[in-house]
Amino acid sequence: MAAYTADSSTLLLKKFGGLVLIVLGVLGIAIGFESGSNGCLVAGIIALAFGMGLLVLKIIRRNAT
To answer: How far is CA 47 from CA 28, 29, 32, 60, in A?
Structure first.
């Protein structure tokens, strides 16, 4: 494993962004279920999917080298 990469800030940003989107997605889903709001529920699911997608892309890129 490399100790330094040229695009380490981009990978860190994707990791942090993915984690933030996952947390916001889970919160959105919980609020949507509690209040019965379909819009909030769908927004939470979309945020959760994008967050997981960013983390999966980061892991695939890390394992490719």
So the answer is: 8, 9, 13, 20
pTM of the shown model: 0.77
Enclosing H/E stretch for 5: none
Handedness of CA 18, 19, 24, 29 (dihedral sign): positive
Q: Which helix (H) or strand (E) holds 2?
A: none
φ, ψ dihedrals at 45, nearest 5°: -65, -40
Average pLDDT across each block of 10 residues of the chain; the chain has 65 residues. List them in order.
Answer: 59 84 95 92 95 89 78
Asked if 8 and 16 touch (Cβ cutoff 8 Å), the reply is no
pLDDT at 8: 67
* Euclidean distance between CA atoms 52 and 37, whole angstroms: 23
**CA torsion through residues 58, 63, 64, 65, sign:** positive
